[in-house]
Amino acid sequence: MTIDRPTHWDQRYAKVGYRNVSWFSPEPRVSLALLDRTGVGLDGSVVDVGAGASLLVDRLVERGHTDLTLVDVSQVALDTAAGRLPPGAAATVVVDVLEWEPARQWDVWHERAMFHFVNTDADIELYRQLVARAVVPGGHAVIGTFSEEGPLTCSGLPVARYSLEGLAAVFEDDFDLVWSEPETHITPAGAAQEFSWVVLRRHGA
Ligand SMILES: C[S@@+](CC[C@H](N)C(=O)[O-])C[C@H]1O[C@@H](n2cnc3c(N)ncnc32)[C@H](O)[C@@H]1O
Questions:
Q1: Which of 121, 179, 196, 200 is the most exposed place for a label (fewest CB within 10 A)?
Q2: Ligand 1 binding pocket includes 46 (Cβ within 6 Å)
Q3: Domain holding 58: CATH number?
């Protein structure tokens, strides 16, 4: 299925509102706990890919992180997030990650509920290579997707679903598995959605 991704996601955020979308989490508890597992310091660099308008960046700014980057295909979502933050608290990049050539690397790549939309073998391979290029040797990736018990679609789009082991296996050429755990996300409408989370450490260093 071919979609106009910027329009699809911009309309989603504009029509539904970021606090009402199914993936909204009032407290990004698992993301914060897994970022703690990476040991990233307040001056370490963190990129949140497919960040949307998540409150994760708010919590990281409150903690005192100074090198934060948000990446998303939706200008509406990133404007919403940036509008809540002090000026300059996080860099924003509006881009389709499958067309993105980042000009730098980060200590930690965080991604929640975006990678499962990457669902062809060619695009998964492209994404795998992108994560490996964008994370410093010895750095970490924290990735959360729908699990094998998760929904088959989200926001009207088909998704790939991963076991904990299957998710780590996608990245095993460049990353070792450090930690994995399941999560049950409760949507604003009260539905349960099952997630798989992994913390991966980049080879080298
Ligand atoms: C389900 S939402 C999750 C948002 C955020 N991570 C969170 O946890 O609230 C998926 C996000 O990925 C973004 N997205 C989807 N496909 C993308 C792509 N190819 N490139 C960049 N962003 C993408 C969407 O705009 C949306 O903000």
A1: 121
A2: no
A3: 3.40.50.150
The single-letter code of the amino acid at 118 is: V
DSSP lists the bridge partners of residue 143 as 111, 198
Number of CB atoms found within 10 A of residue 147's CB: 22
Ligand 1 neighbour 23 (Cβ under 6 A): yes
pTM over 0.85: yes
Q: Cα–Cα distance between 6 and 179 in angstroms, integer?
A: 33
Host domain of residue 62:
5-18+26-202
> Torsions phi, psi of 110, nearest 5?
-115, 140
Taking the CA of residue 154 as reference, the ligand 1 atom at the shortest distance is 1
β-pairing verdict for 192-202 and 175-186: antiparallel
Domain count, the chain: 1
In DSSP notation, 178-201 reads EEEEEEEEEPTTS-EEEEEEEEEE
Q: CA triplet 20, 22, 28: central angle to 5 degrees? A: 90
- Residue with CA nearest ligand 1 atom 27: 52
